[in-house]
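Lab notebook, bench 4. The sequencing result for the construct came back, and we need a structural model before the next group meeting so we can plan mutations. Quick request posted to the team channel:

Model the 3D structure of this chain.
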Amino acid sequence: MITKIVLASVFTGAFFAFGQNEVDVYRLSNTYVQGSARFDAMGGSFGALGAESGCIGINPAGFGRSSVSSFSFGIAGTSVKNTAHFRGNGEPVSNGSSSMDAFKVRIPNLAGTVVSDVSSSNSGLIYTQISFGMNRVANFNNSFNYSGQQFESLLDVFASGATGIDPNSLFDAQPYTSSLAYQTYAIDPDANNNYYPRLNSGDVIHNRTVLNKGGINEFYFAISANYLDKIYFGASVSYNTLNFSESVIHKETLTDTSGVSLRSFIYQYDYTSKGGGTNFKLGAIFLPADYVRLGIALHTPTFYQITDESTATMQALHNDGLKTVDPSLIPSDKYKYRIWTPLKAVGSLAFIFGDNGCINVDLEYLNYGWGRLKTTNDEAYVSYDYSPENKVIKGQMTDVLNIRVGGEWPLTIPFSFVEVTVIILKATP
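Done. Here's the predicted structure in token form:
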């Protein structure tokens, strides 16, 4: 996967969001199941085919097509490359651009299915299945860096945010931003509590790194059945574990230090989000003919309980030494809340061409505007009314129809290929 990020000059004035909002709802709702090599090769389009561990993310009735017990796991590599442009409009410019590459290998799925032959009961059921496993449904590993030179500084934002606030009240009013800049002597107040940064008329060199890590793993248990090789139905319960972290490291260096003591500063903000949530899935697959399969599935919202933690710090280098934040004035917050992701409906159609191959189409509907933020039910934390945030979610986020199309066609050849992969590692001192 290759991602290109364009950073305009106004990004230096970006604010850091310390509350829960529509971004959190989207992050937890936008999931994608990774499965076996066959599942991924078909683009995850398996809703009406079944007999594949990845079908838990689409239609649990797919397990009903299994006639033998099995255990499987997959190994996948993910490559992410981000290119960031500073004060550019999409193409690298002389003022600064950079890229970051990341490649990780992990086990995206583990799956086991125990099949029982119940055809002797004369009930119409031929096989029943109990399935269990784990799938990776979201990957948050995505980082980027940019650097460049301009007149505007992050200190301008911190100084503006402190306007009118007594220095003794800065920690209570702006603990994550202006307070840190004031403690490290990067901004100063005048007699009227108007703050100004310790900068002159020269430019500053920006360097910002954003590190995102984590993902969502789904642990599931499913039951399914085969009725007369015509109707397959299934149900599952899943528990999703969330682990997300973000670190923003922003450094600025003055190009001209005449008349000011400040030389450079580093601001760092760290945020983690952890929790878990439960969801249920129901599905069925119907075979009106040997060459046609129809599938339908309904996914309930995932009901997450989440704990967020955040902190920030700053240090500034002056001509007389390094200024740091008093440890007692380093902000640190911990908060619990709940998120309900949107309901999801999936319809599938597959055509089978005998032993020669197949094609499957999945239509997946969900409305991100149905997502909701809810206050915690933990009495140890103060409750909060998320009505304004939910109004924004409903108004700005809309419905989507995801279409997945996949197919396969086996090749019959009278000889075999042997594949040899050579990996060359080059180390640079």
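The longest helix spans residues 387-396.
Will bring this to the meeting.
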